[in-house]
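Q: Mind making up any chain with structure tokens?
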Amino acid sequence: MSSAVSGDTRVPIEPQTVDAPLTQAAIFLVLTIRDTDTAIDTVRSALADAGGLIKSVAFRGLGSSFSCTVGIGARVWPTLVRKPLPAQLHPFKTVRGAVHTAPATAGDLLFHIRSDRRDLCFEFEQLLLQELAGAVDVADETIGFRYFDIRDLLGFVDGTANPVGRQLPEATLVGDEDPAYAGGSYAVVQKYTHPLSAWNALSTEQQETIMGRRKADNVELDDARSGQRAHKTLATIVDEDGVEHDTLRDNMPFGSAASGEVGTYFIGYARNLWVIEQMLERMFIGDPPGLHDRLLDFSTARTGTTFFIPPASFLARLDDEPAAEPPAQTPSAAPERPTTAGSLGIGSRRSHPKDAAS
């Protein structure tokens, strides 16, 4: 699932590559599956064929960095996949702070469609929805675009702290801690809207204090030693041994100047779901509690959904006849998550030991 992109533009990006290159356009498509046997069978067949459809569209624009990752939610996993849940997969849990809330919203399937060409994203989405006709409903469709030098609509560079090189697979891909799903990844998506007029009324210095970086050149500012912490500090998860636990973010701006609705679509890929969950706890509840991320005063979370991104080979076998009647589903026992510096101990989740994570 980690990309090994060839310099030969005749080679498409492999399906289910979570660290596919940054692109100029994207579609974040979240679907719910209708509660019928026919719908489940239709979806299972479409997901098994997804790799072929991805390659068919990618071949029409080999230099466009077209890719798609497919995620499956916990609600439909037992029926659709007919296997036990991945160890950390569960529905998105609402995070309620004193001032702001990260809501949980519906979503059974995620399609993260990316390309430097908007037409290829549209073509793939159109063909996909034709295959899924009558079996799904659209919970959310957000069309993202790259904004200048990878900035969000608040004017700051986004994704600076993403892992690179050998850190990428360590941070994003499940390993021996859950061997049945090794090579997969957890994904969390959230749609945030921004009141730009209120944000732009702040001085540049006030904005930089909230973000923890300089706006013009993206240079990181010193962390606050106590009290109110900046967004970049609250979004960084470090355990008590000083080990930082990374995620891969491929956020994109979206919006309409005519309607005035603008925002950032957050998508985070992680080897450990608890890392993103703890990041949200720190942002919405605060660290210390009560001092929430000031960015949330200008960013309202509208959606929140969790998915597991299985390897391409796993998806391709999805439509195979099951060897036996699937067992009754019980959530997998998840290993312990390490204590992190400044951990709130709220909504604590179990995860594998820290030496198995990046």
